[in-house]
PadR family transcriptional regulator (Cryobacterium glaciale), 402 residues
Amino acid sequence: MSLRHALLALLTVEPMTGYDLSKAFQASVSHVWHAPDSQIYPELRRMEADGLLVGTEVPWGPRGKKREYHVTEAGLDAFRAWMNEPLSYTRERDPAHLKAAYLEWAEPDAARAQLRAHIANFDEQRVEWLEKVREIDTGTSAMLEKRLGHAPASEHASIRAYKRYTYVGLIARAEHEIEWAERGLVLIDELNGTDAAPPAD
Amino acid sequence: MSLRHALLALLTVEPMTGYDLSKAFQASVSHVWHAPDSQIYPELRRMEADGLLVGTEVPWGPRGKKREYHVTEAGLDAFRAWMNEPLSYTRERDPAHLKAAYLEWAEPDAARAQLRAHIANFDEQRVEWLEKVREIDTGTSAMLEKRLGHAPASEHASIRAYKRYTYVGLIARAEHEIEWAERGLVLIDELNGTDAAPPAD
DNA sequence: GCTAACTATCTATGGGGATAGGTAGCTGAC
DNA sequence: GTCAGCTACCTATCCCCATAGATAGTTAGC
């Protein structure tokens, strides 16, 4: 049910087509949410049917056309309602930690490779999020600046602060995951008596 | 595809019925993985069809019976193969951070309630995981001690260490989430000029 | 004028999981 | 002896999502 609200969040900035939204998911919001276009297009149709959006045909070149969606009052209400309503926390489902609990079953090198992949994954995310924070701070985030353009000046500080707060939190989490995996690498060496420095990379 | 491997992980300790496994998910492993019985029973059937498990009918009372599954060699191979194979990291999908990025849309009190719920959720998990680590350290975890009973003494240190490593990592992550939410509560107060201490709980 | 790369949208299939039931036997307390 | 609560297993439906692929128009460069 969050895809719908992620779409609403993006559409509160400006009207967009399904294609725009799918690009926005890949680029701007991608590291808080993500969805393929095959999910986005039907969901937009459903949201229009539910009255949250209105879609208008926009010509595109001589014969082409595209469908641009903008949020209705009902859509804004739904988004606000979702924002005010508590989240339901479902139980954990975490393959990385599941595997970690049984690492004695893996070859030491395979175990090391997994933890290095864990580090690489979160390091990559960390770099992207750091860049995001930099964009927020320097006013070079296209979506954010557009959003600020439509919002009263009195809200600018909050809007910017919450975006920053989110990404800073994600960076800290990524750093925690990296530290955890690094401790794991040390542990594997200890348990396997490999005192020599093994990593080539 | 991880449910299958979570089930294999549990069944490497000792043969169990679907019911046992569903209880084990609720109790022991529940905070690394979780599944309802309606998922477990059919998956066990499929795993048996795939040759990973063998199920035997065990009488239960005068007329009742239950089906106990034990892992085959093929099952052990499959589990080892999964353990040696790298995880694929799919893109983030994180409702809590998604909402955090748009907190300006929520009423300040609703925003506070969300972050408090975030804290409560991770605090609860933290307490359970701390208890788990205590059980690992004091040798009072039934599953772990059974597992150690079937494993050569030379592996005991690794087995215990990896379990501990997993839960300690989860505790640290929970603490990070709590800290993040607490910073959020401060931020909300700052942005809303509420200097007085508001929380009744 | 053709081709490659991009914009735009949609369908189909299948897996995993949540939720909500249903059936039946067993055990122990009152 | 019967009722509550537990053990045991199963089915059905729906939703979300991943993956793959189909179609068609546009733009720009060569």
Notes: Chain A touches chain B through 65 residues (CB under 8 Å). The first strand of chain A starts at residue 16 and ends at 17. Chain A has a mean pLDDT of 90. Chain A has two domains: 1-84, 95-192.
